[in-house]
Amino acid sequence: MKSTVTLVENMAFDVDQDGHHFTIDAKAEHGGEDSGPSPKALLLSSLAGCASMDVVSILRKMRQPLTKLAVHAEAELTEEHPKVFGEMTVVVEVEGDVNPKRLWRSVALSRDQYCGVAAMLRSHAPIHYKVLLNGVELPEPT
After folding, report:
1. Are residues 85 and 16 part of one domain?
2. Is it the case that residue 142 has pLDDT exceeding 90?
3. Are 63 and 95 in contact, with CB atoms under 8 Å apart?
């Protein structure tokens, strides 16, 4: 893996991540134009993306017929500098004829074993998980 970040103008930067290009930027109050996500926002997207890929892969191996998956990641920033994430929340929403225990099992495997992004972030702050199946929140099985 390799990432190169090059100044474009003001606080906008071109990112070359292994040949994939995108823009990162700061909000106007920080001298940018909000033309792309901030580095901290990308951390949340990475957390959600990692969980998404894990859960879909695991559910497919379990032959669970999901029709839709969305993962939301949220975090509040601390007040003191450097401003970092406090507690984070990951919400996994799945639709389809999926077994609830298998869905939670796939989320737990991602959370506890497979998602390297979660492993790195949780060493700093707690990450809480919620699971919704067809719009209904599922408690984690014991």
Report:
1. no
2. no
3. no
